[in-house]
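Quick start: read one record
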Amino acid sequence: MSARINSIWQRLRYEAHVFFIDHGMFRALYWNKAQIALGVYRSNYPTPARIRRLQRQGINNILSLRGDFDAPFNTIERDACERYGVTLDFAPLGAREAPTADRIFILLDTFKTINAPFLMHCKSGADRQSCQRDLSDRDRMKICGRGT
């Protein structure tokens, strides 16, 4: 998707949507970032300020599990990543249903190509994160020659 923020009013509208409609007010209070493997971090949806902080910590890659579609939260995240020189990739896992085999294969392919260190996130950093963390651990161990 290529939606861009073209004015201060659009930015304010999108940020209000993320804060009130997308439950950003809760994420503003709590950032559940954690390292789950060497060079692999998980969290809830990162704010632009947190994306800047990640970049300063040397994390220059973000993997979103929310999907690449036209939505205010994606536009804000894409804008912040461009502004701070962070690469944003997508491997969508559904929030309300079990992931399909195709989506799992996309995710596994992404793990093989994404450069560590990276942060992976969904909206709240819970259900999709657990699935992805398990897959990431197994896949990374295979890639590094430590798993079967």
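Strands lie at 34-37, 40-43, 61-64, 87-90, 118-121.
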